[in-house]
């Protein structure tokens, strides 16, 4: 049952029909995307947003991660071998998700089983010829029981010349005891090692570093990461007439048995700077989270009301710090400078605990052909305890009232307009490695968002979605007076986002997303001239355009193009340095055939075909290389 507006019902707990999606040879992000805001399918992705950047902020920090519609606090990424894809929901497309926080929702879909058993084998050259192998078995055991079993072997290569290996594993079990009830359990993880850490570059004046050769590693071979990641969880969803019930419980862990963070400070115009390493061990993040949600439908026919109640919680713990700082002396960036591995002297680690419960109540009404309204109220109970070695234990406790409200109206059969307001509470992470108070846990932030927008069905099956938004939160950066990373004011993101998607003519799929952003920082630091009014790393214009064309007389062959344009970015806190605008073009082709009766997909890609050289800059002003031109080939078979 899908509602008129095209998004899920207010409770995504309803057991919507799912297509048979076991075959990997059918996966295509451009053809499956409903809009240009963010969609990943398998190893491909389209759209202007992703988990770490939605309207200029992190959806993960905002507590907006979901696993098939249920709240999930992510300590480590769920292994891709069991995740078929994810979708970024903003504005009108997020109407089906109760109690959202500002930014947007990022919802992950686990793999499902089709009508017949399928074993999929995928062999990829990866970027820079780092070979990957994935095997997925999708088995319908009975009419009520499905099983997915997955294994992935990855030998990854990076633009910096660094490399790493990963061994991923996972499985998904789904059980439907009766009509309208589904239970899902999953486990996913990976072991990784020899993940070399390319240095982050901090220049003396904040300007971009001089150009260096890509694919030449200039860190230390012994400065790497090794550890493991694991996610375990389960959900139960039931549609019992007028009652809908959904519950989810998840445990997420990310452990670094070996840890290193490399950076160059004070890099001058000739590329000379101070090389430093932070080396640690036993760095860990763990979070147990879950949600229980109940809704009751009232009324029928054209006018339907819904009451819903939810309890969400998380218990997160991080152990970090105790680093040994290794001064490697002056060195030139981009030039290998191997040194002997010293003996390390590790200190005690910081222990960071967060306990949070959100109790929510909501109401929705839907009037067919007219519109809908929803309102939610949440009482949050947040407690954070930080125990640093040699310092008194710090406790932060906050119990704010949060709320969300939205209204959508359909003045015509092809037009929907809406408005929404949201208040949220989110994590702000830890201070960066180059701050005096590095790795210090930061307090939770109160955030707020308002937006208006529309969706318009256009002739020929095209769909336009657009929104104006205003999102605000406290702004953290390094204080130029003393080098401490702290709140220096407020940051406000006002912008216009738009998506145009559909099939303009037979065989051609088009997904275009764009966002014009006007980010501004206000506060005493700006007034005193210690901080510029534009936040680091933000761009005023981002355009992500994707085309996929199947030849009319040879539908087994298709060609695709991806264009990503990013405007000029502020590169330092004083706003005295910028990164230039750049456009990156990827070209690709797919050929679908059968080998020995086995459905087979051959996928070729040329990424960054014009070999644009570029840097990305972090919130603390550190620079890292962007990938250059590279070729990739993928062979997928559904046996």
Total DSSP E strands: 35
Task: Profile the largest sheet.
Answer: 22 strands, antiparallel, barrel
Task: Give me the number of helical elements.
Answer: 2
- Measured by DSSP, the beta-strand proportion falls in over 45%
Based on secondary structure, the structural category is mainly beta
Dominant shape: globular
Q: Provide the residue-averaged pLDDT.
A: 92
The low-pLDDT segments are 1-20
Q: What is the CA–CA distance across the termini?
A: 32 Å
State the share of residues found in helices, binned by percent. Answer: under 10%
Multimeric state of these chains? single chain
Radius of gyration: 25 Å
Descriptive notes:
The longest helix is centred in the first third of the chain and has 4 residues, at 29-32. The radius of gyration is 25 Å and the shape is globular. 44% of the residues are buried. It has two helices and 35 strands. The strands form four sheets. The chain has a 22-stranded antiparallel β-barrel. Strands 2-1-5-6-3-4 form a six-stranded mixed beta sheet. It is mainly β and 639 residues long. Residues 1-20 have low confidence and may be disordered.
